[in-house]
Amino acid sequence: MTAGSAAPRPSASGGPASLTPADPMRLSEISGTAIPVEGNDIDTDRIIPARYLKEITFTNMGEYAFYDERFEESGAPKTHSFNDPRYAGASILIVNKNFGCGSSREHAPQAILRSGIRAIVGESFAEIFAGNCTVLGIPTVVLSAEEIGTLMSAVKQNPKLRIRVSLAEKTLTCDGRTLALQVPDTVWKALTEGTWDSTRLMLANLDKVRKTAAKLPYLSGFAGAA
Question: For the structural domain made of 18-195, what CATH number should be given?
Answer without folding.
Answer: 3.20.19.10
